[in-house]
Amino acid sequence: SGHSKDGLCTGSSRRDQVIFWRAVASIAWSVLLLPPTTALYVVLSRFSLFHPLQWLTGKRTLKNVIYSQNIAIFSFILLCGVVLLVGFFNLEYYSVVPSIACSKIALLGHVLHPRQFFHSLVHCIMGVVVAWCCAVTIGGRYQALGYPCMKDESGPQMCLNENHLVLLLAGAFVGYSHSLLGLVHNMNYISFHTVQQYKYLCFKGTLPLVMRASAVQALYSLRNFLALYFFMGYVPRAWVCRTLDLQVDSSVYSLDCVSGLLDLSLLYQLWISASFLLFTWYITVLLFRIFVTEAYSFPVQPTFQEDAHQCLPEVITGKQPTILKFLALQDLARLSNHCPSRRQEVFSLSQPGGHPLTWTAVNRECLSLLSDLTERLVSHHDNVASNGRTNRSWVLFPPPGGSRSWVLAHVHHPLTSSLMSIIPSRLPSCPSSPHVFPHVHHPLTSSLTSSLMSLTSLTSSLTSRCGPWPICFMMSDWVLFSLQLPEASSQALFADSQAHIWALEGLSHLVAASYSEDQYGVVQTTLPSILSAMLMLQEAVDRHFKLPHASSKPGRSSFSMGDSSYKTLRFALRATLKTSIYRITATFGEHLNAVQMSSEHRKRLQNFLEYKE
Amino acid sequence: MMCSLALFPPPLPGDGETSHYYSKDEFTTDPSVWFEESHALNLYFPRESLKPHSRPESSSKAAFRDHCETLYTRSAGAWRDAGLSGLLNEIANSSAEVPKWLGVSSRCVLALLQWVSSFHGSLFPHLTLSSEEMTAEFSQVLDWSDCAVRGFAWHPHTQKCAVALLDDSIKIYNPKSSTSPTLKHRLQRSVAALQWKPLCASDLAVACHNCLLVWHVDPTSLSTRPSSGCAQVLSHPGHSPVTSVAWSPSGSLLVSASPRDTAMLVWDVAVESCVPLHRVGGGGVTHISWSPDGSRLMAATPSSLFRVWETRMWTCERWPSLKGRCQSGCWSPDGSRLLFTVQGETVIYALTFTDTPGLPLGMSGGPKAATVVADLSETSLDTPDGDTMVGGEIQSLAWDPRGERLAVLLKGDAGAGRPAMIAVFKTQINPAFKLLPCGFVQGEPGTEPRLMQFNPNFRHGAQLTVCWSNGKITHVAFYFMSARVPQPGVGGSPPLPISQGRPADYVNQTLYTELIS
Lengths: 613, 517
Hints:
The complex is a heterodimer.
Chain A: H1 2-32, H2 34-45, H3 52-57, H4 62-93, H5 104-112, H6 114-138, E1 146-151, E2 155-160, H7 162-184, H8 199-232, H9 234-244, H10 258-261, H11 264-292, H12 312-317, H13 322-338, H14 340-347, H15 357-387, H16 444-466, H17 470-480, H18 488-493, H19 497-517, H20 527-545, H21 569-588, H22 599-609
Antiparallel strand pairs in A: 1-2
Helix pairs in contact in A: 1-4, 1-11, 2-11, 4-6, 4-11, 6-7, 6-11, 7-8, 7-11, 8-11, 13-19, 15-19, 15-20, 16-17, 19-21, 20-21
Chain B: E1 3-4, E2 27-28, E3 33-34, E4 43-44, H1 71-93, H2 100-123, H3 131-138, E5 149-154, E6 161-165, E7 170-173, E8 182-183, E9 193-196, E10 203-207, E11 212-216, E12 231-234, E13 244-247, E14 254-257, E15 263-268, E16 273-278, E17 287-290, E18 296-300, E19 306-310, E20 315-319, E21 326-331, E22 337-342, E23 347-352, E24 371-375, E25 379-383, E26 386-390, E27 394-399, E28 405-410, E29 421-428, E30 434-442, E31 449-454, E32 461-468, E33 472-479
Helix pairs in contact in B: 1-2
GO molecular function (chain A): protein-macromolecule adaptor activity
InterPro entries (chain A): Nucleoporin_prot_Ndc1/Nup (IPR019049)
Protein name (chain A): Nucleoporin NDC1
């Protein structure tokens, strides 16, 4: 037992290495892509409409060149550091199961979460760093924070260069809003594509979209930033002046007025810098996604006994990390569809003993996944049916990452005004899939309600004071409108359904192939259980789609880096389930009448055989 | 072995000789053809009863009187209707109202735009066509714009078919059900192709003017007019008109193609997301065809190039240096052979893919060059009425799901006295690929075949469904014992004779016929 435990440990660490090395490769590529991106940025930032020749030839003095070379190298090293850090954050924060907030207050809970706060803070700082590099690269009037100026009485002094300050603050704001929007749009969620392409082609195909997304997102962020700076610009300016002992040059217009902000050159530089910042970060995210989701081929049977933990049946049944399980299920779906030789290995018998160990393990895990989902759907349906939609309900979801278990809960009173509670609590171990616990009357509720009231008043006072701050928007939204995000509970139920889709595809393809390829009849013995699991799930899914909001499609969002495919996973699951059952019925046809099953299932199956579903 | 039309038995004259080969609609010379007298799905859509869709709003301008609007309103309208070029045109045309520099600069920009677009158009001439013309040009239907039946699709698993008509409606027929639903949708215009989703009872993909519709027609529903809520609209900027649509045989993916879009779109229909597959060259994608085993996909372009995609990692093989563009293509049931035809040529080419699909780098072991397998150049055949000219360019190909019959729709040429007709070949895939002449399928006098498809659910052989120019849809059955699945006790198939040479040989051919009524 000690030996096997040892093997498991090394095995899991070696499996983790797969993801780790993929992440390292993606970060290395994003660092390699930094020089061309920076070069492009330098060219664009020097662009001037009225002096095209000067722009092309770059007429500058020798002194400037030597000075800027040193500082350019330094700022480039800084940029590399930022990209490395962003890559590290990607690796640390990614998840294959999206975290879905069921109400706006839960979303707020996510935002105020320390982990997310840390993420935002670091991105804010990195935004400042990138903006500083940009300012140095642009040079000219953006070069430094202070400049010597003459005041009337007291001789030469250092004055504040507000252009530089605006650039830095814009960087901070864009960095923060990147982090915040990343949370709201689930940018940490990694989805697997149905169409597998080689990494280069995939990257090439997505690159224009990323460029557009970063340019558009930079525009929006800039709009918000300028509005904020217009109202609150004097606060950071005064603070910087006080701390660094800089003077405000009264001969220059301050920028927090309409005429100051309508400086086209400044706007262009801000926009191009924000685009550059977002583009480098988006590229890092994109490369990480492409590298991590690349199909991985697990051996079906071990060549040596020591490698047993690395092969498909072991990884599929393993619990941690979730992404490996997903990769293994993806591999199962692909091998069952495309690879006759590997299918043959699944159907084969173990050498001493003659047991279909591989098939049994694969089958058991897939069926348990399906029955899990069925159970979840049935309990959710019962909950809704017994309570109605307005009664109080507690919903607990694991956050991204699975193991780090912060649990959010909310309660909804229809009669009184809406009272929400956020109860961050650490559970020792949280299962990797979302679970719904009906009717948990948490003892903390009453005690927390009062504290929440104070939170509410705090936020509303914040709303009145701080103007267009995203959270304030959200809070005022919350105060004024309903708190429930109607589709979210349905989305949350199917959050990890990609695994179920692969399990269904893998099972149905294997069963269909077994009709002609399974020499020992290992599949036949399990056919009744597979069919009944699928039919039960089919029934549960049908019932779920009769609930309000379950079958409403989310509006198509314009492209952003956030992946919204989790919003439609339930439709994909429904389609795959039907196709899978049809695949089995189309292959076996009338032979299915010989399979043992309940009369209700037989009736349903007959519908499938007659193509009436 | 080269097969040529000269080896074919000549088509019979208009009035059939023996009732055995005669049905009220068609004549054929293939002794193995037998018509069921009353097929439940013999349909008739007279051309006169169908009203083509009225032209879009832009052309209704002429019906209204000119009305004075401010320049701003007109410019906004032009921008909305015709985009940048419309706006520039409007400004350039109203030189009295705009400052001189604006008028001049807009004229300059307009001239530059026209020059660029004409340059682009000279590279890819098809881009100068209007959307309707483009659909007509690249559709698999002969004379699409004037055809009463614009599309036809058999359900892959049950006796059910969908018919797209000239008035942009789609009707679904099922002999077991008394209702035949009619599908209409605001966006369902100029239907170029339609296909049922495999391994599904209800989903039908329709290639429309500027989008892709996926209808969910509940087979148990009694409604005759499903609401447009039953249709999923899949659209993508720049992807219009859609001329071809193909479901993967496993039912998981849908591929759509447009001659204006260089990218082929691979849709995950349930999620409504698509992955564009861009490749340089070709200028668009006109026709796509998925191999029955799902491992490969043929994509024809408007220029002399087509691609064969491998569907595991979605890499493609280019097949350039054709004389014209690839007009049509079809796969053998095992996915090992691709037959295709080229516009301007009268031959059928074959590509053989020998590797087992699914190995890494699936394109290795692919063919190096296409071989000519059949020559369909013009020939005159002796008929009791005198010589008849047959042959010419090929509009489309269809291979029956068992791989025993190949139907070739010949374009014909009314001026040269060559009617469009369907030539049918017998085919054999294993152990060696063979094509043998079988016969012609002709319609009533004065009618031409426009569209054909084999019925995938015909038990006793192959059944070719033909849509005729007069709006009739009929079914020609070829009864045979499948060579692949020999059934004991019915005599079996005699060895196929290989006819080489003399045209008169067809008389002596032992055509394996097994008539099952």
